[in-house]
Amino acid sequence: MDIPKVSFFDFLVRAPEIVKNPLPFHHDNFEKKGDTFWLHLGFGKRVIFSRNPELLQYTLQKNHKNFTKTDIQTKEVAKYIGKGLLTAEGALWKTQRKLIQPSFHKKHLARLLEIMQQTIRKEIAELPIGEKIDVTPPFGKLAFEVVAKALFSGAVNQEEIHRLQEVVEASQRMLVRELRQPYLGWWFKYGGLLEKHFRMVREARQLIRRLILERKKVVEPKGDLLDMLLAARYEDGAAMGEEQMIDEIMILFTAGHETTANALSFTCQLLAKHPEYQEKIYEEIRTLENRDLMEQLMQQQIIKNVLEESMRLYPPAYFIDRMNFEQDEFAGMHFEKGTSLLFSVMEIHRHKRYWGAPEDFRPERFEGAPNKHSGYYYPFGAGPRMCIGNNFAMFEMQMVITELIKHFKILPEEEAIEILPLITLKPKNAEVQFEKRS
Ligand code: HEM
């Protein structure tokens, strides 16, 4: 079966609009050509775009061994944050995943909940009340701090957290510039901009190294993620090496803060537009308030439904990319060796074939069996490389929404929710106002 094509000319005609926001262009082509199409990008380069959930499952789950992440993650991202879970492939990824995965199981996360909650409460107490604010920056700070405290508990101070966040965010911004303006590569290199960023990364790595070395001298366990990572052993009984541990910590910061901050920002905007859900959540919080923290989180059905619906409409990881090692075939479609495949998670999450009223905010669609939409709902990816921090992120976001709704009403400031599709899907102006509950 021939996969429909979108020509370089069609791409060129809409190029100015695509630079700002490529999603309407993708959507129009999906509607015209079907759920999978080739996009020709010029100079012989072409990419397959797909919103076919079965092809996604085939690629990420059923035949995942024939697919690798593209150079963007394995080389470009890795050059700043190193080779670890998010950026490694093959044997290194497999051993690292096996070693780190247990630390993210619910039973281990239970030990981190209290420190996460304290951090969230402190950050929420600093939110300005009664004025219009863009919630993305404070949620970015909150999410970064939650990962930092989960990793290092009291061993890291505010100034150090702030510096680490600056470095991680600056290197992500630099990467976006490199990807968007590849023709300026020589200038980035010889003008010293790349070296400036690598210097910052070296400084951040030095800080993390010091925290690890100090911890190795402490006898009393802290029960944080760093303790768990230090105690973890490979199959041969060896512990993780220092440089590898620094890579993994840089990766947890990178993978774990912006995605969570974006999801929280979109959720706040949606709640501001749909105050009836704020009241439903408030009731739920009051009903569960005397239970133990883990039990509250397990029982918070309405909050979970709201978060899932928010990530359906606005998945922070809105694209997943892969490339095949060997030629492959799926449902009559033939893929040459080395084909780039881009899955639009956002299009799958709004596909009319799978969702009733896909553009509407209806959290109740997630009521009932927990995985009832699992065939076409992928906010955390799928298969062996699915997000390792999914439970961490859900617990964190549930605690943030709990604290917000317990104390405030969220009022809308912007009519439309606008998006900024960069490496992750960000809100453009997540402006709301918090008003104290009487
Ligand atoms: C709402 C928040 C989050 C979303 C939407 C999200 C989404 C994702 C997705 C879609 C992937 C798979 C990417 C792919 O297959 O190419 C992924 C991987 C990953 N995520 Fe998350 N994530 C979130 C929060 C977190 C948090 C809080 C952490 C850690 C503290 C984390 C750590 C990771 C890591 C390490 C990977 C790579 C896993 C591997 O390849 O083995 N994420 N995430």
Number of helices: 19
- Tally of structural domains: 1
Q: What is the average of the pLDDT values?
A: 95
Number of strands: 13
Strand content: 5-15%
State the CATH superfamily name.
Answer: Cytochrome P450
Largest sheet properties: 6 strands, mixed
Task: Name the poorly predicted regions.
Answer: none
Bound molecules: protoporphyrin IX containing FE
In CATH, the architecture is Orthogonal Bundle
Structural class: alpha+beta
The third-level CATH topology is: Cytochrome p450
Radius of gyration: 22 Å
- Write out the strand line-up for the largest beta sheet, numbering strands in chain order: 1-2-3-9-6-4
The helix content, as a percent range, equals 40-55%
Highest-level CATH class: Mainly Alpha
Summarize the helices and strands and which ones pair or pack.
Elements: E1 5-6, H1 8-13, H2 15-20, H3 23-33, E2 36-42, E3 45-50, H4 53-62, E4 67-68, H5 71-81, H6 90-100, H7 106-109, H8 113-125, E5 132-134, H9 136-152, H10 158-180, H11 185-190, H12 193-217, H13 225-231, H14 242-273, H15 275-288, H16 293-299, H17 301-313, E6 319-324, E7 328-330, E8 333-335, E9 340-344, H18 345-349, H19 390-407, E10 408-412, E11 419-421, E12 425-427, E13 431-436
Parallel strand pairs: 1-2, 3-9
Antiparallel strand pairs: 2-3, 4-6, 5-13, 6-9, 7-8, 10-13, 11-12
Bound molecules: protoporphyrin IX containing FE.
